[in-house]
Amino acid sequence: MKSWKTCTLLVLLGLAAAGCRSPYVETDIRNDSDKPIHLIEVDYPSASFGKQSLDPHATYHYHFKIQGSGPVAINFTDAAGKTHSSTGPQLKEGQKGLLQMTVTGDGSVNWSENLISSK
User: What are the tens digits of pLDDT across the range 32-49?
Assistant: First the structure.
């Protein structure tokens, strides 16, 4: 009798844990240029993250939770010391999925997203 109750409890806890995951956005910043970029900052609704530098042809992975709504933007400095800014897609609280920012050789940023609402 005790093992039946234990098994039932474990199954219920497992189902509850699987259903309670918070939605996150998996993000990659790719530097497709031939020179490093520096002082990288990504601003998104209610928060930001950054990285000191990213080598040529390297990728930095990060994940975050969207709280609020608004655009995402990236700012960085190229190897010549010029500051670049780019605004990406509008984000909404509860979205999850993939977001990619690719820095090109001329300092522009290509955005790619595959986000869905988790609600």
Answer: 999 999 999 999 999 999
Q: Is residue 13 part of a domain?
A: no
Q: What is the pTM of this model?
A: 0.80
Question: What is the extent of the structural domain holding 113?
Answer: 23-117
Task: Please give the mean pLDDT across all residues of the chain.
Answer: 88
Q: Are 47 and 73 in contact (CB under 8 A)?
A: no
Confirm if 92 and 79 have CB atoms less than 8 A apart: no
Kindly state whether residue 2 falls inside one of the protein's structural domains. Answer: no
> Can you tell me which residue has the tokens 């920012």?
101
Residue 45 has phi, psi (to 5 degrees) of -50, 120
HSE value, Cβ hemisphere, 13 Å, CA-based, for 53? 9
CATH number reported for the structural domain that contains residue 92 in this entry: 2.60.40.2890
- Integer Cα distance of 13 and 86 in angstroms: 44
